[in-house]
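Cross-posted from the bioinformatics board.
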Amino acid sequence: MARKIIGIFGAGRVTETDNDWMAAFSMGRLLAQRGFVVLTGGLGGAMEAASRGAREAGGVTLGILPGTRNTTPANKYVDIAVYTGMGEARNVINVKSCDAAIAIGGEYGTLSEIALALKGQCPVILLDSWHIAPHNTVKQPDWQLASSPEEAVSLAIAAAEAESGA
Amino acid sequence: MARKIIGIFGAGRVTETDNDWMAAFSMGRLLAQRGFVVLTGGLGGAMEAASRGAREAGGVTLGILPGTRNTTPANKYVDIAVYTGMGEARNVINVKSCDAAIAIGGEYGTLSEIALALKGQCPVILLDSWHIAPHNTVKQPDWQLASSPEEAVSLAIAAAEAESGA
Amino acid sequence: MARKIIGIFGAGRVTETDNDWMAAFSMGRLLAQRGFVVLTGGLGGAMEAASRGAREAGGVTLGILPGTRNTTPANKYVDIAVYTGMGEARNVINVKSCDAAIAIGGEYGTLSEIALALKGQCPVILLDSWHIAPHNTVKQPDWQLASSPEEAVSLAIAAAEAESGA
Amino acid sequence: MARKIIGIFGAGRVTETDNDWMAAFSMGRLLAQRGFVVLTGGLGGAMEAASRGAREAGGVTLGILPGTRNTTPANKYVDIAVYTGMGEARNVINVKSCDAAIAIGGEYGTLSEIALALKGQCPVILLDSWHIAPHNTVKQPDWQLASSPEEAVSLAIAAAEAESGA
């Protein structure tokens, strides 16, 4: 059986002084402590924070990169670097490879990952992230909102375990 | 010089009795009358409506399909069918190939196309589509809202012409 | 019904003094005269020659580009430019979108298109192109060899028409 | 620093009684013993043999799958399963993510991986695999031939270490 993977999606422009950086770092650490592989887009900002948190807790980190090892190398906390050379199309791979995902803050790339996760039925938890609402609808949203990194991690783990019938 | 292309993104589940179907049909027709190639995801619903409107006005229609000719053939109003076999990753191609795009209504796939367009700097016009807002920000949105098919077409054409320095 | 598409795959480094350039040009022209859309990778060399031959005969040319309009714009003989931003992964799209394909000469990219065509069951004709042979096998090859541009075009048209049950 | 990855590419239809199966198994084991992550396409046949050899030697195995976890799940010897949903386009990712690769036997998919590796400058070693030769050329081939699994592994490791300036 392949190991369980939980994704953390967030902006590349976040820095260590931003709340989102620390949230991503904490979530990476918590997920690693619970034995999950932590998947990110492999670049800087929130992606690096999550990878670093997981690495420092002894976890395994997976990065799915948009470019090549020469153009956009993985940050130094990525253990397994998958280079796609496919630009934003790698966002599709991110959501298909996760058992569940957490979006923290984020810009347009993160919004696309949220949408692709919902489209592809990967459970997704939003933490201080995009507000989205379809035009003219009353159906229940398929996403969940968290109000802290700890809650986001709990919801993601529950979703990942439900996903696989565990 | 390649021909100018404007994309119309919307849900596959829209039917002829929905407002979105007629809006997509009208926009396809108007864009074809103005000489634009009309790009869609090539499947049914709003994609078929837009292609049909463009075809009936004598225009050229381009469909970028998620599957293969055997699994998910293009609707019958697509002139040029590009089969990717890449699932939702074809949404990236849709936005990269347009000079501008209009989202009409739509579900998660359309939301991903809106996000990818914004990420990839393809001007995007929203008509009765997703409401989106980043967490904690005051910056101006990069998208435009239209209140009618005619307005959406005008805004898209203006954006497509500005895009190319025309 | 979408229009029939035949692909011409060849090297980007071919110049007008090479035999392959003139062969690609001739085949583009012949295919356009017979009413086929001519698909190429949209860049220079044999891709440009084929597009130019088709365009000058009044045909429609389709280019599937590896990059974006800013990084790797289509050559000026491409009517419909599809930008993927996916690098060599666009070669998969090339073969999936053709009713048949011709490889003329070519380097490693062309070899990958030949292999992907064979894998994806797109009929492929080789003209002065790669010699390929599996290790230890006696089965009939799935590709056809042509000895002139005219023969390559005839074989490709026959294959494209058989493909669709025409 | 991300871990070094070496790919083993081969046919999905190989069975345990084939020489290629045992060669793939041996190479997976040898690479794992030398500390490399072993990358495959994640499916059966030679891919499973290589993953199993690596797993049984205590190594880490990475599988890049063409489909989704529901349609084409990874074989049970894959530790890290990356689902792309992109069909053969995942072959591009395979070659971009390796420091070096070995092709063992193989059918058209393997031939495409050989070509893409050569195109993308991933060093590639051929063991009882495709014979390829460009038309009309005298230049030195960019690939290397091995005559045993042990030699293939040695050549791949040397290439992977040269690649990174180690």
